[in-house]
């Protein structure tokens, strides 16, 4: 089993996939589209990647405002979630993605990637941060349930 992480933007979708042990997230690609509302090709590519990697669950970054309110981008993301669920038949979990793009940009800066080249990779790396956060939370919850069972 693998889990896919998605960073849904106005013209791109960053894609990451977990390893089969659900420990780490790896960036796969950035799906680009010419117009914001043209999602058919993006959804078709996501379906291809689901089959290729054996994905059984999707984590979709939910862009909240810093004060935890939801704006227009969050509403568009929720609509995309519904389309993903209908088209793929897989469960889609919304994951708070606040500061993932900032963290991705910082990681690239620390890695010495030039500013003009960062834009090419930021969505894919943000998808990695979204998925890794989800995997870490799953792992921590699993550890807690094991501790509770052994008491």
Overview of this protein structure:
By secondary structure, this protein is α/β, with parallel strands linked by helices. The chain has one domain (2-150): 2-Layer Sandwich (Nucleotidyltransferase, domain 5). The chain has helices at residues 40-53, 72-88, 100-110, 115-118, 122-150; strands at residues 2-8, 12-18, 25-32, 55-62, 92-96. It has a five-stranded mixed sheet with strand order 3-2-1-4-5, with helices on both faces. The longest helix has 29 residues, at 122-150. 28% of the residues are buried.
The CATH class designation is Alpha Beta
> Which range does the strand content fall in?
15-25%
Mean pLDDT rating: 86
Head-to-tail CA distance between termini: 29 Å
How much helix, percentage-wise, in residues?
40-55%
Instruction: Please mark out the parts with pLDDT under 50 across 5 or more consecutive residues, or reply none.
Output: none
Oligomer: single chain
Task: Identify the strand order in the major beta sheet.
Answer: 3-2-1-4-5
Going by CATH, the architecture would be 2-Layer Sandwich
Main sheet characteristics: 5 strands, mixed
Give the number of helices: 5
Shape: globular
Roughly how many Å is the radius of gyration? Answer: 16 Å
* Beta strands, count: 5
Please specify the SSE layout and strand pairing.
Layout: E1 2-8, E2 12-18, E3 25-32, H1 40-53, E4 55-62, H2 72-88, E5 92-96, H3 100-110, H4 115-118, H5 122-150
How would you concisely characterize the structure shown here?
With 151 residues, this protein is of the alpha/beta class. It has helices at 40-53, 72-88, 100-110, 115-118, 122-150; strands spanning 2-8, 12-18, 25-32, 55-62, 92-96.
